[in-house]
């Protein structure tokens, strides 16, 4: 009969196998721990974005503008959101508020919801139905569009909601599929510039001549790109009309 | 066709062939090679996902048993013999994929500044 030690799970480990078992256990724990640490350390900082439930529900009144993504220019603010601010709006989950905002385009409206904030970028997740967005009494002031010229920018197209704090990470290649689903659901897209443009690194990004972000650009979401287009200031928000045929990966020459 | 489309088409093709193999094997083949399966039907749908994935192995085993191409034990030996190399290759593959992913990852282009190509109408 063979003298080779044989391990049976419900019996004590045979003497000659104990050292091997301890060695393998230590190597596995140390190896997996090290691999986990290295993979975690290789990830980018997810940034400071977050839902600001600590602010409580925010309710302000302003002028709705379809850029074509819905933006509100605040006329009557509160302690946190000041008159003159402009911010984007979204609904719960991966969906926008286009259908609710379109009938109110150019009109005064009251909006209510929870703020998502990331540095100087913020947007609002509206409450459901008319509780989140409803027409308000009064005359809507004109919101002038101020052309800022044609720019070549380098950075990343993200979905505004996740970037502002709905997800961590809310940008980067690991988040690409989520970002595209959000954009398909009409969440406003944001361009994060490699360096500040006219004082901000976050711009609402649309297609040329005020169209929605072209589907061609979705392939470049979450990648670092360079592209060209006109910038217009609407309220205190910059809107970049990206031209899809100028998009290329950052560092590549335009053909 | 880009890489993503090619990968999706490859997976679709693999799945379609797997579905055909599953249909033929679970309706006809399994009765021919396993007498214990004869008259038993409820468990067969549970095998569909597995057959979709490993249909080449299903076909090979079916042919081995149906044709008496090898002795009983030999029908299983080639598969078991490949476990060791497969484990080593898959382990190395994970490491290679992680390293390749990290090496081709873009770095944030913070050295590239915005460039104004033309002034605005009221600038």
- Count of helical stretches of chain B: 5
pLDDT < 50 stretches of chain A: none
**How are the strands of the largest sheet of chain A arranged?**
2-3-4-6-5
Oligomer: heterodimer
Give the tally of structural domains of chain B. Answer: 2
Main beta sheet of chain A: strand number and arrangement?
A: 5 strands, mixed, barrel
Major interchain interface with per-chain residue totals:
A-B, 28 and 21 residues
Q: Residue share in helices of chain B?
A: 55-70%
Beta-sheet strand percentage of chain B?
under 5%
Shape of chain B: elongated
Our Rg estimate of chain A from Cα atoms comes to 25 Å
Strand content of chain A: 35-45%
Alpha carbon gap, first and last residue of chain B: 45 Å
Proportion in helices of chain A: 10-25%
Count of extended strands of chain A: 13
The shape of chain A, in one word, is elongated
Number of strands of chain B: 1
Low-confidence segments of chain B, given as residue ranges, are none
Characterise the protein shown here:
The complex is a heterodimer of chains A (255) and B (123). With 255 residues, chain A is α+β, with helices and mostly antiparallel strands. Chain A has two domains: 50-135, OB fold (Dihydrolipoamide Acetyltransferase, E2P), CATH 2.40.50; 145-249, no CATH class. Chain A has helices spanning 15-41, 98-101, 129-132, 160-166, 176-184, 215-218; strands at residues 50-51, 58-66, 70-76, 86-90, 108-118, 121-126, 133-135, 145-159, 189-197, 200-206, 224-234, 237-242, 248-249. Chain A is elongated. The mean pLDDT of chain A is 91. Chain B is elongated, with a radius of gyration of 25 Å. The interface between A and B is medium-sized, with 28 and 21 residues. β8 of chain A pairs antiparallel with β1 of chain B.
Quick recap:
The complex is a heterodimer of chains A (255) and B (123). With 255 residues, chain A is of the alpha+beta class. Chain A has helices spanning 15-41, 98-101, 129-132, 160-166, 176-184, 215-218, and strands at residues 50-51, 58-66, 70-76, 86-90, 108-118, 121-126, 133-135, 145-159, 189-197, 200-206, 224-234, 237-242, 248-249.
């Amino acid at each position: 009969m063979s003298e080779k030690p044989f391990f049976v799970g419900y019996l004590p480990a045979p003497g000659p196998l104990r050292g091997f078992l301890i060695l393998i256990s230590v190597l596995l724990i140390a190896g997996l721990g090290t691999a986990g640490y290295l993979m975690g350390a290789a990830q980018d900082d997810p940034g400071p974005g977050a839902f600001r439930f600590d602010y409580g529900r925010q309710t302000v009144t302003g002028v709705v503008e379809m850029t074509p993504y819905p933006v509100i220019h605040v006329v009557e603010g509160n302690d946190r959101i000041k008159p003159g601010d402009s911010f984007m709006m979204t609904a719960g989950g991966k969906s926008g508020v286009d259908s609710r905002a379109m009938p109110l385009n150019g009109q005064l409206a009251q909006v209510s919801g929870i703020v998502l904030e990331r540095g100087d970028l913020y947007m609002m997740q509206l409450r459901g139905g008319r509780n989140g967005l409803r027409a308000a009494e009064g005359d809507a002031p004109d919101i002038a569009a101020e052309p800022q010229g044609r720019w070549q920018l380098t950075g990343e197209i993200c979905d505004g909601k996740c970037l502002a704090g709905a997800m961590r990470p809310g940008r980067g290649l690991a988040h690409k599929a989520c970002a595209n689903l959000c954009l398909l659901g009409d969440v406003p897209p944001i361009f994060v510039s490699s360096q500040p443009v006219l004082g901000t690194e976050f711009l609402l990004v649309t297609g040329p001549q005020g169209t929605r972000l072209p589907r061609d650009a979705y392939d470049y979401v979450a990648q670092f790109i360079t592209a060209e287009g006109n910038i217009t200031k609407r309220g205190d928000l910059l809107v970049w009309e990206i031209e899809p045929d100028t998009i290329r990966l950052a560092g590549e020459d335009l053909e | 066709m880009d890489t993503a489309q090619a990968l999706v088409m490859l997976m679709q093709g693999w799945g379609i062939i797997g579905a055909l193999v599953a249909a033929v094997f679970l309706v006809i083949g399994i009765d021919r090679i396993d007498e214990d399966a004869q008259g038993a039907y409820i468990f067969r749908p549970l095998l569909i996902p597995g057959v979709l994935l490993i249909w080449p192995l299903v076909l090979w085993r079916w042919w081995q048993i149906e044709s008496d191409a090898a002795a009983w034990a030999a029908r299983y030996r080639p598969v078991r013999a490949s476990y060791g190399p497969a484990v080593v290759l898959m382990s190395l593959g994970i490491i290679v994929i992680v390293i390749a992913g990290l090496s081709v990852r873009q770095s944030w282009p913070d050295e590239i500044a915005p460039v104004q190509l033309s002034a605005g109408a009221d600038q």
